[in-house]
């Protein structure tokens, strides 16, 4: 189990902008955290160069330190894999109180950051767990059905459903724009992300009764393809903030896209690609505005996916080649045509009697 857990987090490849080549980096999780967590009865002094580890005297991590280390592992679990990490952590910690406290703090953050989709009871469909739909406690609004789901974050299930109150919903004027955009987004997501879900929320100005005032809505898309039996998982999240500026009749869009992939068959590589973009269009009727917004979202997301595919095509000839050292440590090419310049060559020639 120790080897398996180390393998789960040993290598992380990170890409944080358009250029796959410029932001491909390798990092390791803190080795001292791993050692202290798995061997709490031993004290390991790890030199900054990490060339040697010496056990000289005994120490014991406090429960709070163990909790923080456990939270780190949970929060950094790839999409759809937190339950596997949690299972190993619970076994390693061997302390239910510490584990329960770490899980209760880490799971809500993880679920919202990955915008997980949960099935609501009573045939109401699915609900996205996002900070935009969070009401109070563990309650999350599903604007499509005007229902509120009560979520058990650690078990990642919806335990109860209730109707949303009038105070939790936008006014009919704002709802007309929100609903029109949601209809267009559902069409787009159904075509582009077969296993995806989307929701549209009003996050500012939900009390606006009519023209003359600004309001803001956000469209979120979440899709995941999990295949742990084949040692791979993948996820997509996109968040589109739309500011509806009535005074200048403009809709301003701000998009944040994130793609994640994890491959761990006989290795461990994780991709985390992020991208931001902006655009604008005219503030029109609800239906026309929705069509224009959905068209812009489709354009930017398709363009970004095309750029990722282009980067992957250049991996063998560009990225992987750049990772290799072009010159030896001497910073000069090896003179294969004149190896006699090297003392080792002369010594070998002398020993073998070559050239006599």
TrEMBL record:
Keywords: Actin capping, Actin-binding
GO BP field: actin cytoskeleton organization; barbed-end actin filament capping
GO cellular component term, pick one: cortical cytoskeleton
Lineage summary: Eukaryota, Viridiplantae, Streptophyta, Embryophyta, Tracheophyta
Biological function: F-actin-capping proteins bind in a Ca(2+)-independent manner to the fast growing ends of actin filaments (barbed end) thereby blocking the exchange of subunits at these ends. Unlike other capping proteins (such as gelsolin and severin), these proteins do not sever actin filaments.
Quaternary organization: Heterodimer of an alpha and a beta subunit.
Top-level taxon in the UniProt lineage: Eukaryota
One Pfam family here: F-actin_cap_A
Protein name: F-actin-capping protein subunit alpha
InterPro entries the record matches: CapZ_alpha, CapZ_alpha/beta, CapZ_alpha/beta_2, CapZ_alpha_1, F-actin_cap_asu_CS
Family: Belongs to the F-actin-capping protein alpha subunit family.
Gene3D superfamilies to which the protein is assigned, alphabetical: F-actin capping protein, alpha subunit, F-actin capping protein, beta subunit
A GO MF label: actin filament binding
């Amino acid at each position: 189990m120790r080897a398996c857990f180390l393998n789960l987090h040993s290598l992380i490849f990170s890409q944080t902008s358009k250029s796959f080549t410029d932001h491909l980096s390798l990092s390791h999780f803190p080795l001292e955290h791993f050692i202290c967590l798995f061997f709490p009865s031993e004290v390991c002094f790890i030199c900054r160069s990490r060339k040697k580890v010496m056990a000289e005297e005994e120490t014991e991590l406090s429960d709070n330190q163990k909790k923080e280390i456990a939270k780190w592992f949970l929060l950094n679990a790839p999409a759809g894999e937190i339950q596997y990490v949690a299972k190993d952590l619970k076994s390693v910690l061997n302390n239910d109180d510490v584990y329960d406290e770490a899980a209760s703090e880490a799971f809500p953050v993880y679920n919202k950051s990955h915008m997980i989709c949960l099935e609501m009871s009573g045939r109401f469909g699915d609900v996205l767990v996002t900070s935009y739909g969070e009401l109070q406690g563990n309650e999350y609004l599903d604007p499509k059905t005007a229902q509120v789901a009560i979520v058990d974050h650690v078990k990642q299930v919806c335990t109860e459903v209730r109707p949303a109150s009038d105070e939790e919903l936008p006014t009919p004027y704002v709802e007309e724009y929100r609903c029109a955009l949601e209809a267009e987004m559902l069409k787009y997501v159904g075509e582009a992300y077969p296993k995806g879900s989307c929701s549209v929320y009003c996050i500012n100005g939900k009390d606006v009764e009519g023209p003359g005032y600004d309001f803001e809505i956000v469209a979120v898309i979440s899709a995941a393809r999990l295949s742990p039996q084949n040692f791979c998982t993948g996820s997509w999240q996109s968040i589109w903030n739309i500011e509806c500026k009535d005074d200048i009749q403009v809709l301003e869009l701000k998009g944040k896209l994130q793609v994640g992939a994890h491959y761990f068959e006989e290795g461990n590589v994780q991709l985390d690609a992020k991208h931001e973009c902006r655009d604008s269009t005219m503030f029109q009727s609800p239906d026309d505005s929705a069509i224009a917004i959905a068209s812009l979202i489709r354009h930017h997301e398709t363009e970004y996916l095309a750029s990722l595919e282009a980067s992957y095509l250049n991996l063998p000839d560009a990225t992987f080649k750049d990772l290799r050292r072009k010159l030896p440590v001497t910073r000069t090419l090896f003179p294969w045509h004149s190896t006699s310049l090297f003392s080792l060559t002369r010594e070998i020639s002398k020993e073998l009697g070559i050239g006599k």
